[in-house]
Amino acid sequence: GNSVTQMEGPVTLSEEAFLTINCTYTATGYPSLFWYVQYPGEGLQLLLKATKADDKGSNKGFEATYRKETTSFHLEKGSVQVSDSAVYFCALRGLVEETSGSRLTFGEGTQLTVNP
Amino acid sequence: KAGVTQTPRYLIKTRGQQVTLSCSPISGHRSVSWYQQTPGQGLQFLFEYFSETQRNKGNFPGRFSGRQFSNSRSEMNVSTLELGDSALYLCASSFLWTGGYEQYFGPGTRLTVT
């Protein structure tokens, strides 16, 4: 079945530091890949997505590239801010042609804390 | 457009009781999915409903059930509550576009079982 593995956290950085959160996946075919962010006391917000190999998703300074050869979708940001402190989830959705529908498979989540 | 709404936001129940959670999707979205989030198990898929039919089901016991109404609103029910059912229950509504499904999450219902 499908699975997603994220780097173990938590991650603590100083403001303006470079961020990388690793994400690798196991799936058949070409799944769609997502990063979601969860702020304290809130639900999940879609941060960015990529639907095919070599696609780069980007939003709010965050980027991730869909690498089929390494089955990875690492999240990066060049300069983090205190307001980026949250939990980040990598997720995949199987092929629409399968019976997966809109079902998402999530990684474990990575807690990011950015200190001033 | 209004976002996904979930009610109630917080709930405290006793072991053995049952509970019903409600989710109103974004207008026009026909797919509603439910997820359970716990510190130990992370985010796990419960089930998905599309046009009042269960389309997909996760690996949860039969105590967890759901339904969807003709207006796409969905409810999930947990019977005979156990302490381990304490979790944040997230609802997500989706629409299908050429790039696949776009999924939007509600704020969740925090269920505490004592």
Quick description:
By secondary structure, chain A is mainly beta. Helices cover 0% and strands 48% of the residues of chain A.
Tally of alpha and pi helices of chain A: 0
Task: Compute the number of strand runs of chain A.
Answer: 12
* Main beta-sheet strand count, sense and barrel state of chain A: 6 strands, mixed
What is the subunit arrangement here?
Answer: heterodimer
The helix-strand sequence of chain A is EEEEEEEEEEEE
Structural class based on helices, strands and sheet pairing of chain B: mainly beta
CA gyration radius of chain A, whole angstroms: 14 Å
Structural class of chain A: mainly beta
Mean pLDDT of chain B: 93
Helical fraction of chain B equals under 10%
User: Which stretches of chain A of 5+ consecutive residues score pLDDT under 50?
Assistant: none
* Low-pLDDT segments, ≥5 res of chain B: none
> Which chains share the greatest interface?
A-B, 23 and 26 residues
How far apart the termini of chain B lie comes to 37 Å
Strand content of chain A: over 45%
Description:
- The complex is a heterodimer of chains A (116) and B (114).
- The radius of gyration of chain A is 14 Å and the shape is globular.
- Chain A is 0% helix and 48% strand.
- Chain A has 116 residues and is an all-beta fold.
- Chain A has no helices and 12 strands.
- Chain A starts with a strand and ends with a strand.
- Chain A has strands at 3-6, 11-14, 19-21, 23-26, 32-38, 44-50, 56-59, 62-65, 75-77, 86-93, 105-106, 110-115.
- Chain B has 114 residues and is mainly beta.
- Chain B is 0% helix and 59% strand.
- In chain B, the strands form 2 sheets. In chain B, strands 2, 4, 5, 6, 9, 10 and 11 form a 7-stranded mixed beta sheet that branches. A 4-stranded antiparallel beta sheet of chain B has the order 1-3-8-7, with no helix packed on it.
- In chain B, β7 (64-68) and β8 form a beta hairpin.
- Chain B starts with a strand and ends with a strand.
- Classes of the chains: A mainly beta (116), B mainly beta (114).
- Chains A and B meet through β6 and β11 of A and β4, β5, β9 and β10 of B.
